[in-house]
């Protein structure tokens, strides 16, 4: 069992930096019990890593064929390559959120498939619906993760391409997202280059993957500080409300964020971390269950 100790040379909020890898409650690939555990597909195979704080150090242990690869990427995962020091806050509310959260950074997994898989499931549906489908697919078709924690490694592209129609249906996945996921699985080996190239455009060449999905992957895969989730149901309304007092659309949000290029996503991140969301005036959308149809 390989292990590693690393002392970050900057303030680090471990939970906040790694929390974006969790896909809802009951995520079969992630646990926050006793630190952070997650299982992943890597270029070397499946791996599990356990990360925790011990004073000023970060201690990590890993298991499986991909364990050492995960340990090698620990500093980048925790934001060592982040360009947060270059960020300039142009709004007092963003400046204050940054001041209160010096340990908030953008980490980079340097992996694409697991993140792309989860992001496709979250296209144009409620979070509850997406998380349910992620849990079902992971529990049914993900292999048991190496190590002592009962986790599941997200299903590989090859595993998903072998599923039958009824298996997709039992997991609650509609036809549109299924087609996009199959499209991505068929070229997954090529898409891993997107992390190396830092290219959202490469991901968007896949039919069904647009700017929202590519941004969600870029934020986590290579810590892209400018990848705004344009097209999200909530983000534009929340950002414009936080900065102007009136909820607006994507165009209004991008106009407000123009001074933050090339760190527009980071500005959004500080607003989200501060909990600034527009008041709700309508009931929540009810999640659809495609298993009923």
TrEMBL record:
GO biological process, one term: DNA alkylation repair
Keyword entries, A-Z: DNA damage, DNA repair
SMART domains linked: ENDO3c
Keyword Coiled coil: no
UniProt keyword DNA repair present: yes
Domain HhH-GPD: 121-279
E.C. number: 3.2.2.21
Gene Ontology CC, one term: cytoplasm
Gene3D superfamilies: Hypothetical protein, domain 2
Catalytic activity entry: Hydrolysis of alkylated DNA, releasing 3-methyladenine, 3-methylguanine, 7-methylguanine and 7-methyladenine
EC class of the enzyme, as a word: hydrolase
Protein name per Swiss-Prot or TrEMBL: DNA-3-methyladenine glycosylase II
């Amino acid at each position: 069992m390989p292990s590693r100790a690393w002392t970050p040379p900057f303030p680090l909020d471990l939970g906040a930096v790694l929390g974006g890898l969790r896909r809802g409650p009951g995520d079969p690939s992630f646990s926050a019990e006793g630190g952070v555990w997650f299982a992943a597909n890597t270029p070397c195979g499946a791996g599990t890593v356990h990360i925790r704080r011990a004073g000023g150090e970060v201690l990590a242990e890993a298991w499986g064929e991909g364990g050492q690869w995960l340990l090698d990427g620990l500093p980048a995962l925790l934001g060592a390559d982040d360009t947060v020091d270059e960020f300039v806050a142009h709004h007092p509310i963003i400046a204050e959120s940054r001041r209160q959260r010096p340990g908030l950074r953008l980490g980079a997994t340097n992996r694409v498939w697991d993140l792309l898989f989860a992001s496709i499931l979250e296209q144009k549906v409620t979070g509850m619906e997406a998380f349910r489908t992620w849990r079902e697919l992971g529990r049914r078709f993900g292999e048991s993760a190496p190590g002592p924690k009962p986790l599941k490694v997200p299903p590989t592209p090859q595993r998903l391409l072998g599923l039958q129609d009824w298996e997709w249906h039992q997991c609650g996945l509609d036809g549109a997202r299924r087609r996009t996921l199959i499209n991505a699985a068929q070229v997954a080996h090529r898409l891993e280059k997107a992390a190396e190239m830092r290219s959202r455009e490469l991901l968007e060449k896949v039919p069904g993957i647009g700017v929202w999905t590519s941004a969600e992957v870029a934020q986590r895969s290579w810590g892209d500080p400018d990848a705004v989730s344009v097209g999200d149901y909530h983000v534009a309304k929340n950002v414009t409300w936080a900065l102007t007092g009136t909820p607006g659309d994507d165009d209004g949000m991008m106009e407000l964020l123009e001074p933050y290029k090339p760190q527009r996503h980071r500005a959004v991140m500080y607003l989200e971390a501060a909990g600034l969301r527009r008041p709700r005036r309508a009931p929540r959308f009810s999640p659809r269950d495609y298993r009923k149809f």
